[in-house]
Design a protein that fits this description.
Layout (H helix, E strand, L loop, with lengths): L2 H9 L6 E2 L8 E2 L1 H17 L7 E6 L19 H7 L7 E5 L5 E5 L6 H5 L5 H7 L4 E4 L3 H7 L4 E4 L23 E3 L3 H10 L3 H24 L6 H14 L5 E2 L4 E4 L24 E6 L1 E3 L2 E2 L2 E6 L6 H20 L6 H18 L7 H6 L2 H5 L45 E4 L2 E4 L1 H8 L2 H4 L4 H4 L6 E4 L2 E5 L4 E3 L7
Parallel strand pairs: 3-7, 5-6, 7-8
Antiparallel strand pairs: 1-2, 3-4, 4-5, 9-12, 10-11, 11-14, 12-13, 15-18, 16-17, 18-19
Amino acid sequence: MTESTMANATHLNISESCFQRCHHTLKVPMSLFQDNRKRLVTRVKTKTEIPSKGSFIILKGGIDIPFNDTDICWPFRQESFFQWCFGVEEPGCYGAIDLSTGTSILFVPQLSSEYAIWEGKLRTLEEFKKKYAVDESYYTNEITEVLKTKQASLLLTLSGRNSDSGLQTQEADFDGINKFKVDNKVLYPEICECRVIKSPQEIKVLEYVIKISSDAHKSVMHLVKPGLAEFQAEAAFMHYVYFTGGCRHVSYTCICGSGSNASILHYGHAGEPNNKVIKDGDMCLFDMGGNYCGYAADITCTFPANGKFTADQKMIYNGVLAARNAVMNAAKPNVAWTDMHLLANKTMLASLKEGGLLKGDVDDMIKAGLNEVFQPHGLGHLMGLDVHDVGGYLPGHPERSAAPGLRKLRTSRILQSGMVLTIEPGCYFIDYLLDAALSNPDQAKFIVAEELKRFRDWGGIRIEDDVLITETGVRNLTDVPRT
């Protein structure tokens, strides 16, 4: 934990409601979410023609999801837009914000008294109001009557499609909503824009979870040796971020690829559950991030399992590191993210050429799409409450490119101060892509085929840092060994 973060935890008003897992973890004041709501109201009022009087923002929280057809549910994680506005831990809630006054209203499920047997003493409405620092609290079966009493005439609901996943947001759908006029077009782009730029309080939470995740990566580095299973490294990371940092969740399924598995971009899935035994001579590519109060970290470290780089491992690693450093030095406000991606690609291809794997002009390689053969993913992504955060492609911002490499970018935005992104160049030797390139004359002419043979089943290298765009450049929030 940084000194500034520790000071924040120490100097909070002890009477202020907050999120905290234990005395040694970060206190996240509910004022963070109050500030988010204020920012949203201000933006909607200034960026749209929606009348303030009688207009209410309505958000639906996440629900418990049963595991198959049993009475056991998956561990609950709050819906991200609802978390951003209200910071509520319980499922089944709704929230409303009066656009004219900024008044916040929390609606919680009314549970029967018998629930106290299974879930402990039930909170009163007043206790919910105090816990989450909202202005008013009611039960969810009272939503319609409460809104009628407040003379609500227009409800702004959340409806939009995530440009990464293609999934649709969950829109408020309570009984009686048909009694009001509903607009589901305005809210989504405005709340996404708010989430793109992080507030100072949000940055403090991100600093904390990224520092805890950095320390967890370092602890795994100390642990790893030939003979250890990949899932044991995953288990060690998950134990550290929870036991030490209070992160009940990780932000995504841990990727713990060793040897050839390091070239599988989303390794660790159900079919390949980090179950290989790490061998002497393997490179380990570990992509893991904790999650605290809903906020995500996303860090990748790649290192030799036995602690010593071979000449080839050093050559590829230094090429990826050079690409990462080039972006770190160039990224700043008003710079296009697409330019940063191409800078990373060109730097890495130049390193592969210097290492004898490629030949020819690097700019011509880019034109032929060779960059996508060795790095088939984008340079990085926005990060916040979701590891692949919203706002990548919204109206008024650059659209997705169709060019090789650029078409895989999760955003093409112009960088702004207050954005948090990952910078994660990589170099992988994937048979499917190498075979396609070697059979394509426009790409094959750049490849030194004889030299490339020894990299079959070799794996890959990725270096991923979580960074904050500042007024002058980049501040790296990640703290792990890179050299």
